[in-house]
# Entry
Amino acid sequence: MDYSKIEEKMSKTISVYKENLAEIRAGRANPAVLNKIKIDYYGTPTPINQIAGISVPEARLIVIQPWDLNLLKEIDKEAETILADARQKALKNQNRIVNEAKEEAARIVKHAQEEALLEKKHAMNDMKQEMITVASLMAQKVVAASIDTSIQDSLVDETLKEMGESTWLS
# Structure
């Protein structure tokens, strides 16, 4: 069995894996993110790391120093293209995030309105109960103060006669 082909495949796989890991952003500027950027170098798309020196002097800064100063326009043009693409992606994400936030806010407002209406109904019911209790107490006092017991007895007797005594006897 020929192990050299398998070893070659595995080494290629490992190198691709390492390249992909190098592009991961980890809170620090990483020059490997520029590896896939190609600049038009006299009609030939050339990786930027082959036509310029790339350094990271600070954690959030990548410096590109082209060896041929005539390439500055091409590098600037490519940078603008990349930035425009990044802005478009950011705007799409911003719109999505804003829409999600609006939907969440609408749900919160709706829930708050429902709770407020429910509390309003509870308050109205409590107020009605309080009014009924007060009115009942006032009616009892008015009736007791204005009618003496003899008038009360005669009213009860008249009402019983009107209703018929058979109703009460059965």
About this structure: The first strand starts at residue 38 and ends at 41. The chain has four helices and four strands. The mean pLDDT is 78.
